[in-house]
Amino acid sequence: MLQFGTGVLLRALCAASVDAANRAGAFNGRIVVVQSTPQGRARAMNEQDGLFTLLERGLSSGERVERTRLIGSISRALVADGEWDAVREVAARPELQVIVSNVTESGFRLDSGFPARLTDVLRARFERLPDGPTLFVIPTELIPDNGRQLAAMVDEVAREGPQSEEFRAWRSARVRFCSSLVDRITPGAPPPDQRAALEAGLGYADALLTVTEPYSFWAIEADPPALRTAFPIDVRPESVVFAPDIGFYQERKLRLLNATHTAVAPLALLAGVRTVREAVEHAQLGAFLRRVLFDEIIPATDLPGDAAQEFALSVVERFRNPWLDHEWRVILTHQETKMRIRVVPLIVAFGKRRGRPPEGLALACAAHLALLRLPVESLAEASRLPEFVAATTRWMRVLEHEGVEAALAHD
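and the corresponding structure tokens:
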């Protein structure tokens, strides 16, 4: 397997999933990691022979969980800028059947350089191993339809260069781009004041010590038997799922986890609450978060009721992770875009289904507008609903004249 990216999410999710499949005897695969940027961890990976410690800490079914695993699925790391010939050589091996990427949303663009590099890797395979086994390309960037989008970028790059038509025909026949969804909160390295104690308990130093939550989920959109033949890592169905359509899993995470984050973040910051955990434990803000999630967001989705309730309960438990300092100021990044994508469709759906505006989301939007000092019209489609505009405007007045505590105290 070839992996573009050396970040913590790929270590906590991809490398851990491959390691679990290897240990279960279902797979016998190793990962060659490609560092595409100067800030990667290729050197540390090679110095530790690819080994790293995964520390899982959090809540599971109400119980505190703290466990460590030594992950041994990475064989080596290559630096793209200086070892590209070696990357191309790996691509031409018949043993290679999977390519995974996580180059972040900013790197997942046609002009970023990554699509060109991936196209060159595929060209190397086309030139040296044209009759090799099918290659599965699985992007994990948090972008809808990431497989389809990456395939389109590769095809665009492939229009240039020698044997363009032949290469694109080969790509269509021999390479399968699979959209995927990853879900695991992974802050990465432990805080400096905790590292010494953790390493003392382990009995060794680990430059790649990776901290994550117990929850882990990776959904990959593909023909399950075909993908399982090349990449049989779905040994734990609660953690890795192969499905012909992963729309259910995408909607579940986008609405119940991501939309809750986006809706609550402005109100929490206005209330002076720093982290997600502190918000869930806060008497008023915690009640507001649960109200928005269970009484407004779930009814606005098409998710099956029992499945939505179960996942929402797990989301609240994950938010309460006593070891996770997930700061609202970080969640607020690109807040306006997130509101449009994650929350506005819920507002519109709720209004159509219930015939009234969702008051909790109206307060959340008022806090969003107040914090970023934006006009009501910035809520795009939602601003066309007169009742919702009136509710949001009313909550903005409450925030301005009575304060956040008074707004949260309203029934």
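(Above: one complete record from the training split.) The two ends are 54 Å apart (CA to CA).
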